[in-house]
Write a structure and sequence with these properties.
Layout lengths: L4 H6 L8 E5 L5 H10 L4 E6 L2 H13 L5 E5 L15 E7 L8 H11 E12 L13 H10 L3 E6 L5 E7 L1
Parallel strand pairs: 1-2, 1-4, 2-3, 4-5
Antiparallel strand pairs: 5-7, 6-7
Length: 171
């Protein structure tokens, strides 16, 4: 099974009314799943560096009558690059971005900056056992070290599918 956004969001302690940031929203699968999970009283921030992808997410959300999403053209590898207020987010989702990043330390620090105390981050990325993943990937141990060095505590793993791992960290 490939990574299923709805299934993964269901394993991430998301409740109606929460605020979520989707770091590196890409095609928006996690943005949409998160918007449904938090309901009309919640908020999802889709952060993406490619404007055309933000437009695609917006189109999908409009088609599905989701009005609780904000679209941010931002840089997840720069402190302050998401333009989200400090300590304002309950959950951060970062799916299939870690292996692509140049400045992983700043990425972790930006997640830490936007999360509320006790907030959680879900990092989903390619497993080193998958024959389908990229040449250059980040192992679970390396991901744990990156988040730990930014001051996060490892909480638990989720079943993110046959080709991915999912790690939950707490601020």
């Amino acid at each position: 099974m490939f990574s299923n956004p709805e299934h993964n969001v269901d394993q991430f302690d998301i409740y109606p009314g929460m605020s979520i940031a989707d770091f590196g929203a890409g095609s928006g699968y996690y943005t949409i799943a998160g918007a449904k999970a938090v309901g009309g009283s919640g908020r999802v921030y889709a952060i993406e560096v490619q404007k055309d992808l933000l437009e695609k997410i917006k189109s999908q959300a409009t088609h599905q009558h989701l009005q609780n999403i904000e679209y941010i053209w931002g840089d997840i590898e720069k402190l302050g690059g998401t333009r989200i207020k400090d300590a304002s987010i309950d959950r951060v989702i970062a799916s299939n971005v870690l292996f692509q990043l140049h400045d992983k330390k700043s990425f972790c620090n930006e997640i830490k900056r936007v999360l509320k105390p006790g907030g959680k981050a879900l990092c989903i990325d390619w497993s080193d056992t998958s024959p389908l993943g990229p040449q250059s990937l980040i192992t679970t141990e390396t991901a744990k070290e990156l988040f730990h060095s930014a001051g996060f505590a490892f909480s638990s793993s989720i079943n993110a599918g046959d080709h991915h791992y999912g790690l939950i960290f707490i601020k």
